[in-house]
Structure formats: C-alpha cells, structure tokens
Specification:
The protein contains 1 helix and 2 strands, in the order H-E-E. It is an alpha+beta fold and 66 residues long.
Amino acid sequence: MKKVISAVMIAAFVVSAGVAFAATVKCTVDTVEGDKVTMTCKDASDLEAGAEVKVKTSKKKAIEGC
C-alpha cells in the first residue's frame, strides 16, 4: 500500500512540475496611451498575438539617509 501511495505522489509531482513552467521575457515600456502599452522585448519568440501575459513591475528600493 505504501508503494502505491508513493508512486501516485511521485507521478503527481512530475506532472505538476512540467506544467508549472512559463516563459519569462524582459521588456521595457516605450509608450503608454490610456489602456494601450507599447513595449520592446529582448526575445519575444515565445509570445504570440492575443496571448494573455502577466506583467510585473520592478520595485525601486527607497534610499534613506541622515
């Protein structure tokens, strides 16, 4: 019984690990006009027109001093 449960757990991990990968593309924003954003990307070969993308902004750390 323990071997069956272990085999099922390993199979679930392998399947979920293969699905979790996503493309990462580094871009810079060129223009913003209302809801329309134009970006220039280094390697956009993984992207296609109409695909949903998730955009994360870079956070700048505050510089504190006396």
